[in-house]
Amino acid sequence: MNELGERVAGVRRFLAGWRTRIVVSFTVAVVVLGVVLFAAMLFRLNRQLDDRVDDRLAQEVEELRELASTSGSDGGPAISDVADLFETYLRSNVPDEDEYQFTILDGEPFLRAGSSPAYRLDADPAVWSRWVGLESPDRGDVDTPGGHVEFLAVPVDVDGRTGVFVTAIFDDVERDLLSDAVTRTASTVGLAGIAATIVLALWLSARLTRPVAQMATTAREVGERRLGDRIDVRGRDELADLARTFNAMLDRLEDAFGSQRRLLADVGHELRTPITVVRGHIELLDVGDPADRRATVELVTGELDRMERLVADLLTIAQAERPDFLDPAEVDIEEIPAAVVARMRPVAPARRWHIAQPQPVRAIADEGRLVQALVALADNAIVHTPPEGDVEVGAGIEEGDVVLWVADRGPGIPEDRRDELVERFARGGSSSGRRGTGLGLAIASSVATAHGGRLVIGDNPGGGARIELRLPPGGPGREETSWTGY
Questions:
Q1: Nearest to 37 by CA among 187, 178, 176
Q2: Residue 207, Cβ neighbours under 10 Å: how many?
Q3: pTM of the model
Q4: What is the rounded distance in angstroms from the CA atom of residue 218 to the CA atom of residue 139?
Q5: DSSP one-letter string for 351-384
Q6: CA-based angle 250:256:257, to the nearest 5?
Q7: What is the largest CA-CA distance in the chain?
């Protein structure tokens, strides 16, 4: 039952699939177009047949008039009256198999030409009585037991005596032959066209849906251990662009999963030590004198504070790629260094804090995130500078960028380690004996990237490191300059 259900589901997927839709759509379009072309061609050929019938009827009447106009001249036969005209013309004129000609004289059928017409119009009073007393040409058609007839009847007057000349053509045979020929041709060409269309549609649909099918297969097979699978992209059309976009999405997913694994490993490693310390001291909390217990509580509290800072820093980095990470507005950039120094001086009162000469400038940015980034850089500077060391915080405009920096007099950062230290939990040597979380540069880099800028690690001209946030003055995602100096 399960196998039957899978087969039924497979048939349903096939019938509802894009390949089937493309083939059916192409086929229906070709059939509709073929029917329209067939109808148009048949209509056109029938119009041409009508024109030929008109020409043949008009030719017979013209030949009769020419005979009447040349009576007795240039060796032509002498015509005495209308009866003589009809007799002379019909005797010398041999109609085609589908033609029939007859005359009416004194209200009665007179002479006819055509040995065996499909139907004798002159023997049917209901037909020929319409032309008795005809005073002007009558062009029309009539359905008879012998078939459809196209006719032209004209009054003829010779020396005051009037008759009627009728020439008719039975066009059913020619129309039937024409319709059969067109139908056979259209059927042959149509079947061949439909077959070719189905083959072309199958080939085209397979080509069009191959990248989509590959994406579906890859998406089903992608797991944490198979994120390296990619679609083979060929061509430069829209589906190739879709496949490239899908591959780019897999690249981002692979990076995200890798970053997640590294984060979990880093967090586990970083939290294991303080948790072990906290557990060991809590187990000994009831042992010893009150002074030992106070020292234990202080140590545990310090470790918990460090874990709290660690979690807060990790949350900041994790949120950096969210669209609501920033709340940009117009900011007085030159006020940020003073706010950072005011926050950090109580943390490290032994350091000599300096604020660079402020350069008035306004820009579109998230002031809170910029303060957070500079605080992280300042905290990093505290770790890597000795007590009573110098730390400078500043902001301004350089080469069209908004630049905020922290410079210290520590050992500096070797060029070969600068990219490495931006990673999470990367640490350089500590000059102060104070241990950081290893996330300061990563936080600052995340804030700079969110603003559309970058983190630049360089050397302080007086020795030590200078770390800059270089931001576009127009704000996140904008290239135009909107900062103003005053």
A1: 187
A2: 13
A3: 0.47
A4: 75
A5: SEEEE------EEEE-HHHHHHHHHHHHHHHHHT
A6: 90
A7: 160
Sequence-ordered alpha helix ranges (H) in 121-160: 125-128
Query: Rounded CA gap, 381 and 389, in Å?
Result: 9
Strands 465-471 and 454-459: antiparallel
Taking residue 245's Cβ as centre, other Cβ atoms within 10 Å add up to 12
Provide CB contacts within 8 A for 312, sequence distance 6+.
none
Residue-wise pLDDT for 164-218, tens only, equals 999 988 888 777 777 777 777 777 877 787 788 777 777 777 776 676 777 677 7
Q: For residue 233, give the 3-state DSSP assignment.
A: coil
User: For the segment 386-401, what is each residue's pLDDT rounded down to a tens digit?
Assistant: 888 899 999 998 888 8
- Beta strands 352-355 and 390-398: pairing type? parallel
C-beta separation of 126 from 46 below 8 A: no
Residue 157 in 3-state DSSP?
strand
The whole-angstrom separation of Cα 199 and Cα 73 is: 72
Q: Are the beta carbons of 24 and 194 closer than 8 angstroms?
A: no
CB atoms within 10 A of CB 342: 11
CB 32 within 8 A of CB 193: no
Q: With contact defined as beta carbons under 8 Å apart, do 239 and 211 qualify?
A: yes
